[in-house]
Amino acid sequence: MNIYEALRESHDAQRELCANLLASAPDVNTRKQLFKSLKVELEAHAAAEERFLYSPMLMEDAGLSISRHALAEHHEMEELMEELTTNDPTVQGWLTRAKALCDKVNHHLDEEEKVFFQLSGKILSDTQKIKLAKEYLADYKRLKIKYSN
Ligand SMILES: [Fe+2]
Ligand SMILES: [Fe+2]
Question: How far is CA 148 from the centre of its chain?
Answer without folding.
Answer: 15
